[in-house]
Amino acid sequence: MTASPGFGNHLVYLSTLIQRRFAQICAEHDLTTAQAQLLCLVKDQPRGMSELSQLLGLAKPGLSGLVDRTERRGLVQRTGCEQDRRLCTLISTPKGKQVGDAVYAEVAEHLPDLFEHLSPTDRHAFEQLVAAALREER
Amino acid sequence: MTASPGFGNHLVYLSTLIQRRFAQICAEHDLTTAQAQLLCLVKDQPRGMSELSQLLGLAKPGLSGLVDRTERRGLVQRTGCEQDRRLCTLISTPKGKQVGDAVYAEVAEHLPDLFEHLSPTDRHAFEQLVAAALREER
DNA sequence: TATTGTTATACTCTATAACTATA
DNA sequence: TATAGTTATAGAGTATAACAATA
User: Fold this and answer.
1) CA distance B107 to B102
2) Among B41, B44, B28, B51, residue whose Cα is nearest residue B111
3) Of all protein residues, which has its CA closest to the C1' atom of C12?
4) B 3-62 residues with CB below 8 A of A?
5) How open is the CA angle B95-B40-B19, to the nearest 5 degrees?
6) What is the distance in angstroms measured between the alpha-carbon CA of A35 and the sugar C1' of C14?
7) What is residue A25's three-state secondary structure?
8) Which residues pair with A78 in a beta bridge?
9) Interatomic CA distance for residues A84 and B47, integer angstroms
10) From the list B5, B109, B125, which residue is nearest A108 (CB)?
């Protein structure tokens, strides 16, 4: 694939800026980015551990630890499964739902500020392209 | 700032995909992303600790540790300063320069693969917009 | 006295390997 | 025996506070 020289490294830099800003927003809600992402995945629906493991790109021991820490803060809760007692489903507590909604909303509202200096036209084009880039990526 | 609903969270997801791919490339060169970024900053010029601290968005103890680990692998080297003996400058070793160049090149060549599925027109527009977004951001 | 960088400490994240309980 | 999830262990990253050396 031929790309402008520097594009690859621009992407790394851009992603770092986004992650840094995201981490700030999470910290304002007393969350790490990993905890916030976990919370956003379970705040509106229960999810199994394997599914979460895959969605978060974490090996299972990593997820176990993340869930431990997030559960200790009272944001999520492990639930057993009747049919297959090896399985375990994660649900969010009311507090978790509330915090998750708040982080999600603030990300939606303030993360785009990073691109404030783009012209309205460019900003709109950028939004469309980001959406298109993700569309076949998930 | 008004943005499409979901744009902020798209950005988080996009940045995660980029960082994940970047980490893969770094790992192929036996580096962490933090070490690779440090190396890319010093591979072509010496840099002071404060400058690096600011560029990497790290507090000073964090940078000290990162430099320790990278130095232990023989990739960078601390140098004293004659004028002000409190200061310390970081330079890359020949091996560091070589590894840094290799990672940089592979990021330039393969990170854009993430957007292979975009049409050539969209891809070009995306490259331009990413460049524009960073232009006033640094 | 102020500044640069390091050390000490603590917590989070993440990986691999070994283990437990269940199927 | 195979699978789901946990525990054990280790290393990396990052933050705050205390410290040493130098200016």
Assistant:
1) 9
2) B28
3) A32
4) 3-20, 22, 37, 40, 57
5) 120
6) 14
7) helix
8) A90
9) 57
10) B5
Geometric angle at alpha carbon B110, from B107 and B112, rounded to 5°: 95
CB contact under 8 A, B127 and A3: yes
- Residues in A 42-101 whose C-beta is less than 7 A from nucleic strand D are 48-50, 53, 60-61, 63-65, 67-68, 78, 86-88
**Number of neighbouring beta carbons within 10 Å of residue B62:** 13
d(CA B98, CA B92): 9
Helix (H) or strand (E) holding A88: strand A88-92
What's the whole-model pTM score?
0.94
Residues 65-94 of B with CB under 8 A from A: none
Intervals of chain B under pLDDT 50: none
Q: Tell me, what amino acid is at B35?
A: Q
Residue (of B10, B130, B6) closest to A130 by Cα position:
B10
Please write the tens of the pLDDT for every residue from B55-75: 999 999 999 999 999 999 999
Q: What is the 3 state secondary structure string of chain B?
A: CCCCCCHHHHHHHHHHHHHHHHHHHHHHCCCCHHHHHHHHHHCCCCEEHHHHHHHHCCCHHHHHHHHHHHHHCCCEEEEECCCCCCCEEEEECHHHHHHHHHHHHHHHHHHHHHHCCCCHHHHHHHHHHHHHHHHCCC
pLDDT in tens, A47-66: 999 999 999 999 999 999 99
